[in-house]
Amino acid sequence: MTNPDFAPDIEAIRSIDSVPVILSMVKHLTGMRFAAVARVTESNWVACAVDDSIDFGLKPGGELVLESTICHEIRQHQQPVIFGHASTHPVFSLHHTPKTYGLESYISIPIVKANGEFFGTLCAIDSVPANIDEPAITKTLTLFAQLIAMNLDTHRHLEATQIELNNANELGRLREQFIAVLGHDLRTPLSAVRMSADLLESKTEDKRSLNLIAAIRNSSVRMGVLIENILDFARGRLGGGIPVQRKLVDDLQQTLQLTLAEVKASHPQAIFIDELDVPAGVYCDELRISQLLSNLLGNAVTHGSNSTPIILKACAENDEIVISLTNQGTPISAQLMPLLFEPFSRAEAGQRCEGLGLGLYIASQIAMAHNGTLSVTSSAESGTCFVASFPARFKWV
């Protein structure tokens, strides 16, 4: 019965297609009738592959008592052992291994992996003498042992790659579950909260109650934005980019105006100045561009100064749509600037922030999905200015 501890080693050798050919070649080159690949450890000698023409009795998985073998010594010094006529040899005529197994000829080459780990030996034996003094024989068998070691390393790398692939597949499965939770299990109850707030508002005129209902509605809207941001992050970071559905849009300017109006309504304390001159026939995903602008506006309101206006401009320049947003306030630090379009960047840079820090990352991903860019400059004199630009139409139109 095969020791289960060595089943992976036997399987690794079995998976090397060239091993049977190598063992056959070893027998042909040496004239000996038994060849094997053995796994040799501190306590075990286990046959992993065998080519036996003398009925020695070993099969893959079969074991010899380690101390009865010469491989036990080879494991320690990791040098080949070769003799062609044991009974006349000055050393091996007295050695217990030839006497124990009735051997006259013997050759064993260590198999050592690239990391220096001793695996075992490539060996051949026979009960009759053999002419194996030719240096070319030792050199050829050494090359065979190295080839086996290289294949074992490749097998190990393939196993590690398979584990990584399985982990990646599991991550993909968890990602899909994660997106499903966000898309259904969170948004559904949130919609119920919003509908309940609308229903309560229609049934009361008490000012204090109306204020509480407004707070509930505003919180639910904010929660909805956070959920959508996390959902887009999951798609973009884990799934290969935020998806966009571009088409020719004739009223992108109106979409931008509606987006600005929504932000104005939810942030009455902020001051806005807008200059919008966007032509018809822009090739884009207008909902995603609206999301980009909403994220930039939200960032400007959060980090800008309430006493100075936020300036929004949008126009066509050199076959591109350019959207710029400028606000005053504390300039972006040099520490934060390289991280600005990475998720959770403000928290990583030790900045106080509201939300998860995904807004600018998602905005940049939307710009990228439109074959465009999102850039920023920031100084005390000129304020902080984000500029998003993307091709207005197909490049071949």
Automatic annotation (TrEMBL):
Signal peptide per UniProt: none
EC code: 2.7.13.3
Q: Which UniProt keywords apply?
A: Kinase, Phosphoprotein, Transferase, Two-component regulatory system
Keyword Phosphoprotein on entry: yes
Q: Which GO terms describe its molecular function?
A: kinase activity
Q: Where is the Histidine kinase domain?
A: 181-394
Provide the reaction this enzyme catalyses.
Answer: ATP + protein L-histidine = ADP + protein N-phospho-L-histidine
Q: Where are the transmembrane segments?
A: none
**Where does the source fall among the domains of life?**
Bacteria
Per its UniProt record, what PANTHER family does this chain match?
A: HISTIDINE KINASE 1, TWO-COMPONENT HISTIDINE KINASE
Query: What is the protein named?
Result: histidine kinase
